[in-house]
Amino acid sequence: MAGKWAKKRAKKRKIGSSSPAPPDDPLEYASLMRARAREHVSLQGEGGEEDHDIAQIIREVRAILAVNAEILDRCVPHLHSLETKKGSTSATFEVRGRYDAVTVITVKGETHFLTRERYSYEKFCIDPLLTLPDCLEDIISVKYKEVGHLSVNCVDFDTFFQNSLSLHDEVLGPFIANLKDHLENIQVCLGEIDGWIMGGDSNAKFLERVFDMKLSKLRNCNMGAPKCTGRRKREQQNAGRPD
Known about the structure:
Elements: H1 2-10, H2 26-44, H3 54-75, E1 79-85, E2 88-98, E3 102-107, E4 110-116, E5 118-125, H4 127-130, E6 144-147, E7 152-155, H5 157-164, H6 169-197, H7 202-211, E8 227-233, H8 234-238
Antiparallel strand pairs: 1-2, 2-5, 3-4, 4-8, 6-7
């Protein structure tokens, strides 16, 4: 995915760079500029020359923007670091509360299970949040906003969408159709991050079920990284068995 977005940025093109001289008549000039803008978004987007239900697309874009903002708010507190290589940006996220290893020991007839809470880290490409595809460039100016404690410079898609509504309908239709496609790509990107963060830990669930305890209650202990020690006496394991 990173290579895809870096490649799109590399082959950026300008509207009408090799076009003939524009007409002198103001209205003809305006019509020509709209036609060129429509050609730009249609050729480089995926919508083609089809007719677009503008009202329906606007409703869908607003809904996607709201969902994306909600997911992003859940992800940002887990942001750990950023890394940019060859024009592509990756973000590393962290989650506390994963129990990756359990040690079992036997002391004086008792079986002890020891585990320690650890941080887990995962890296994700976040280019869709930071850049625009070619079909959305050169039409409207782009504003950025800083997100999270690392001040990630993300495209302000709410403002971008609102400004796009000033476009003439013949350009607006394919433009916001392409914008919707891009926002859906962002939703997939954020969904992968959110899914990893909210995925939970099967080891923790197993320990809580076996020992009937909540590991989250141990996080305030004064032993450095929270540690869980569970034990079961063999006599308890044999309780209820016939002689």
